[in-house]
Design goal:
Number of helices: 9
Oligomer: single chain
Number of strands: 4
Strand content: under 5%
């Protein structure tokens, strides 16, 4: 791991550690207060939202019980916390700063939240998807693709205006 002035040079490494647990990327970037705060917030939202229970139930195919165990009031905070931590770790790592790099993270958080809202009633092949799988489907492919397209369009607009 290469460091200069106490900051991590590898944006991908910081991003991947934040995916593992929000706050780890910040610790890697030596943003200790922010990292510890994000880890604490992740634990609080995880515990009060019953997220680990939901994950276990969802992997075991007990979708209705996962829905019953979900505290939507708390779990609604998780997507923004999670994607903010990823973006922040990516942004704070050294390297080339890319315009509008935050947009895929924002749209992923948005579509994960929308997926969570509809997870109680959305069915696919006559089966409920639940509070873990539908948000993941919303965030990973849909949020990243939509955010990536919007970022690409904004970059093209900047390029046309000669601002790159």
């Amino acid at each position: 791991m290469t460091r200069k002035n106490g900051k991590n040079k590898d944006k991908l490494e910081a991003l991947l550690w934040s995916i593992a647990l929000p706050g780890f990327g910040q610790l890697l970037n030596r943003r200790y207060f922010k990292g510890l705060l994000l880890i604490a917030l992740e634990f609080i939202v995880n515990i009060f939202g019953n997220f680990n229970t939901i994950i276990i139930l969802s992997f075991n195919g007990e979708i209705q019980e996962a829905i019953n165990q979900t505290n939507y009031g708390w779990l609604m905070f998780y997507p923004c916390l999670y994607f903010f931590a990823m973006w922040d770790a990516y942004k704070d790592a050294e390297g080339e700063s890319k315009p509008y790099a935050f947009i895929p993270f924002v749209f992923s958080a948005y579509f994960v939240t929308v997926g969570l809202i509809f997870s109680q009633s959305f069915t696919l092949f006559d089966q409920l998807i639940g509070p873990m799988w539908l948000p993941m489907l919303g965030g990973l492919p849909i949020g990243l693709i939509v955010g990536g397209i919007i970022r690409w369009l904004l970059l093209k607009k900047l390029e046309r205006n000669g601002k790159t």
